Amino acid sequence: MEMPVVKTVRRAGWVGLLCNLLLAAAKAAAGVFGHSQAVLADALHSLTDSVTDVAVILGVRYWTAPADEDHPHGHGRIETLVTVIIGFSIGLVAVGMGWQAIRGLRHGEDVRPPAGIALGVALLSIGVKEALYRWTAGVGRTVNSPALVANAWHHRSDAISSIPAALAVAVALLVPGWAFVDRVGAIVVCIFILYAAWRILHPALNQLIDAGAPPEERRRIEELALEVDGVEAAHALRTRYVGAKLAVELHLEVDGGLSVGEGHAIAQAVRRRLLAEGPDVVDAMVQIEPYRLRSAE
After folding, report:
1. 273: left (phi over 0), alpha (psi -120 to 50) or beta
2. Which long-range CB contacts under 8 A does 201-204 form with residues at least 24 apart?
3. Bridge partners of residue 284, in order along the sequence
4. How many CB atoms lie within 10 A of CB 217?
5. What is the mean pLDDT of the chain?
6. 3-state secondary structure the chain
7. Which of 20, 79, 154, 285 is least enclosed by beta carbons within 10 angstroms?
8. pLDDT per residue over 134-151, tens digit each?
């Protein structure tokens, strides 16, 4: 990843960190002085967002480091690991919020009627965090950073978690006896947050266990190789993720009468094309085999 991209990722992380710290402080103050347990709990969620912002800011320095002797494929898996941490943190927050809501429903815990300031801060949080999600996700997709996109989803989960807090405060202000709506809404929202966590975790975990590229991307890689002059057939395609990028291994069959130099030139042409036009291909290892000899076996 080039330095301008690294700076872009860090800038997005710093913007998110600043917003989250300010929102957490505002929610905590509104929760205390506005007598809203829902908004106070939501402040904790904003603080967990701050932790993942720090993970992105610090982690980008390591996962963008060039390949070295100990890490010949680069350090892209660090980004995958950061993505997994973010996904798990979102899931844990959702479980904690859901459990707290269920416990409150079971025990019928009373909630003190909130003040208007709690509703105002909750609504402000929804708007700010949704805007922050859209901007961060756009930056993450532009620079192809799964960790930044995952962090954007953490911002959105915070916006979603503010919805039941806002509804609870609004209902409690209008009908104080209906404060239980807070906990019901929180449980529903936690389910959506868990789904968002799974959407982040599933591809990242697949990358950690060396799952290959999707079928359509593998087909595209083979098509690009077969379109190069001199390539008669392709097989034994293997792919693995290095962060958000793909490392490719591919066997090509060429005319057995070609010289070693001619076969090597074809292999290099295929490699250059895969790096230039392939689906996020960061490295390609191409092996040449004689087509005629293989056909006779």
Report:
1. alpha
2. 201/84, 201/87, 201/88, 201/91, 203/146, 204/80, 204/83, 204/84, 204/87, 204/146, 204/150
3. 248
4. 16
5. 79
6. CCHHHHHHHHHHHHHHHHHHHHHHHHHHHHHHHCCCHHHHHHHHHHHHHHHHHHHHHHHHHHHCCCCCCCCCCCCCHHHHHHHHHHHHHHHHHHHHHHHHHHHHHHHCCCCCCCCHHHHHHHHHHHHHHHHHHHHHHHHHHHHCCHHHHHHHHHHHHHHHHHHHHHHHHHHHHHCHHHCCHHHHHHHHHHHHHHHHHHHHHHHHHHHHCCCCCCHHHHHHHHHHHHCCCCCCEEEEEEEEEECCEEEEEEEEEECCCCCHHHHHHHHHHHHHHHHHHCCCEEEEEEEEEEHHHHHHC
7. 285
8. 999 998 888 877 778 888
Q: Are 26 and 84 in contact (CB under 8 A)?
A: no
Residue 209 in contact with residue 269, Cβ under 8 Å?
A: no
Q: Which residue has the tokens 């019901």?
A: 184
Domain residue spans in the chain? 3-208, 215-296
Q: How many other C-beta atoms can be found within 10 angstroms of the C-beta atom of residue 201?
A: 19
pLDDT tens, position by position, 190-238: 777 787 778 778 888 887 777 778 888 889 998 899 989 888 888 889 8
CATH number, domain 215-296, options 3.10.450.50, 1.10.357.10, 3.30.70.1350, 3.10.129.10: 3.30.70.1350
Q: How far apart, in Å, are the Cα atoms of 294 and each of 175, 218, 222, 235?
A: 80, 22, 18, 12
The CATH H-level superfamily of 3-208 is Cation efflux protein transmembrane domain (1.20.1510.10)
Give residue 149's identity as a one-letter amino acid code: V
- Rg (alpha carbons) of the chain, rounded to whole number: 25
The yes-or-no verdict on residue 295 having pLDDT over 50 is no
